[in-house]
Specification:
3-stranded antiparallel beta sheet, 7-stranded mixed beta sheet, alpha/beta, 18 helices, Aspartate Aminotransferase, domain 2
Length: 504
């Protein structure tokens, strides 16, 4: 790996903007075109005769520009943004790892990229083969018995998983009423439980950031459907007593759901199926290196133990006697479909390419590197930033702004100052049980040189917070815009250019 210079170059672009920054509409001049059509050499059609009143009479208000002006406009806009392809993106809980280009190449192979979801199964055997192989790899990695690849994201996987929990309890005669969720959980967990008709009951973490077994035992009863547990937790802490957690739940007929978004810390080392988990989801767009962010397609497969298999969404992939594969819709206990067609197939291809390119040893190494990198950052920063939980870190480390806050510098200020140093901010103010949290996840992708640059930046900012706190509190200073009114931007988003705005 080479030392990244991306973000630092980007900083230069930002501080020395080019002259020619007017927006497309302002640059528009009547008659300019990005194309030239040859003269018409067929009889002209009377559009109105053909389409009647559907023919537009007024001119669309589109900017008129040359091709190079358009290209420069969009390319310039792209340099005002930040990307994983430009530098480190240490967003804890999000696992922003590098997406190898080979995944992209494979997913764009003509036979795969052009496969239509309405193809008959007999023409789609290649895609079905890929789905089957990915299913088997993921079952091997998780130690579970059955899987669906349908859900389109992590939260959608949670929804599907809790539907399985509900369907199973219903088959036992009582759907039960509540789901327990630790206070360190990702916000999607309580949202999922509520949307599946359950009451959410909060479970307080102990001083190590783990589950308090006594509190759990006191809280689980005959109305508890499941515990939703993220392991390692959003504090980056592995739940050492997970076996006992599972035993306590199972003794009362409750199930253990694992939010597997943090599998980047476990793949190749331990398997949830071996430590008592009944059902879990994976985020292919986190752990298995398919792109995410910006609302792109994700994938949240759900894996379960065999007693939950009858409830999996339809259709389920099966192998026929002649060796071909097909979709089985005849599953009377299924919770039904959760997604159209096969799921986000492009993500399956990318994830499988990643898994096969790494192999078991490579995946294990990836996990070890991710954990090593997080702990390297922890060691190099723990003298300057408060570490609220001393429990060993897994793939991410959570500091707090306690020391800097004494000078009025908050986690959000430190994050914004990081932008001036050429880094994307870490995750701010999450998990909620750490006031002023700085949640940092470097992933395995970063080189020692890049980690050191990040550490240097964080150390400089800690010094600035002491000596020149105003500098940090008013950051970023190098971007095109600095502090936005975040509430107004969310409540009153202006997403479309309108002529009235042109004077602003
Ligand atoms: C990202 C994440 C989710 C939600 O996944 P999406 O794909 O964003 O819906 C759930 N739980 C945890 C712990 C996560 O990190």
């Amino acid at each position: 790996m080479t030392q990244s210079t991306g973000p630092h170059t980007l900083g230069k672009v930002r501080t020395h903007p080019t002259q020619n920054e007017a927006l497309l509409f302002e640059k528009s001049a009547p008659g300019k075109r990005a194309y030239k059509m040859p003269p018409l050499d067929v009889p002209a059609v009377d559009a109105e005769a053909l389409l009647g009143s559907a023919v537009r009479t007024d001119k669309a208000e589109l900017p008129e520009l040359s091709e190079i002006e358009i290209i420069r406009h969009f390319t310039r806009l792209s340099t005002w943004n930040y990307a994983i392809d430009l530098g480190m993106y240490p967003l804890g809980s999000c696992t922003m790892k590098y997406n190898p280009r080979v995944n992209e190449a494979v997913s764009r192979l003509e036979g795969l990229a052009d496969a239509h979801p309405y193809r008959p199964e007999s023409w789609a055997q290649g895609v079905l083969e890929i789905i089957d192989l990915l299913e088997r790899c993921l079952l091997d990695i998780t130690g579970m018995d059955a899987i669906t690849l349908q859900p389109a994201a992590g939260a959608h996987g949670e929804f599907t998983g809790i539907l399985l929990v509900r369907a199973w309890h219903e088959s036992q005669g009582n759907p039960r009423r509540k789901i327990l969720i630790p206070d360190s959980a990702h916000g999607t967990n309580p949202a999922t439980a509520a949307i599946c008709g359950y009451q959410v009951e909060n479970l307080k973490s102990n001083s190590d950031g783990g589950i308090d077994l006594e509190a759990l035992a006191a809280q689980v009863d005959e109305e508890t459907a499941a515990l939703m547990l993220t392991n390692p937790s959003t504090l980056g802490v592995f739940e050492n007593e997970i076996h006992r957690v599972a035993d306590i739940l199972h003794a009362r007929g409750a199930l253990l759901y694992m939010d597997g978004a943090n599998m980047n810390a476990l793949v190749g080392k331990v398997r949830p199926g071996d430590f008592g988990v009944d059902v879990m989801h994976l985020n292919l767009h986190k752990t298995f290196s398919t792109p995410h962010g910006g609302g792109g397609p994700g994938s949240g497969p759900v894996a379960c133990k065999s007693f939950l298999e009858p409830f999996l969404p339809i259709p389920v992939l099966v192998q026929n006697q002649n060796g071909t594969k097909s979709w089985d819709y005849n599953r009377p206990q299924s919770v039904g479909r959760v997604r159209a067609f096969y799921g986000n197939t492009g993500m399956f291809i990318r994830a499988l390419a990643y898994i096969l390119a790494n192999g078991p040893d490579g995946l294990r190494q990836t996990t070890e590197d991710a954990v090593l990198n997080a702990n390297y950052i922890r060691k190099k920063l723990e003298d300057l930033y408060e570490l609220p939980y001393k429990t060993p870190s897994m793939h991410e480390v959570v500091f707090s702004d306690k020391r800097q806050a004494a000078k009025g510098v908050k986690t959000g200020d430190i994050a914004k100052r990081l932008i001036d140093y050429g880094f994307h901010p870490y995750t701010v103010s999450f998990p909620l049980i750490v006031p002023g949290a700085l949640m940092i996840e470097p992933t395995e992708s970063e080189s020692l040189e890049e980690l050191n640059l990040f550490i240097d930046a964080m150390r400089s900012i800690a010094r600035e917070a002491e000596e020149t706190p105003e500098l940090v509190k008013t950051a970023p200073h190098s971007t095109r815009v600095s502090r936005l009114d975040e509430v107004r931007a969310a409540r009153n988003p202006v997403l479309r250019w309108k002529r009235e705005n042109s004077s602003q």
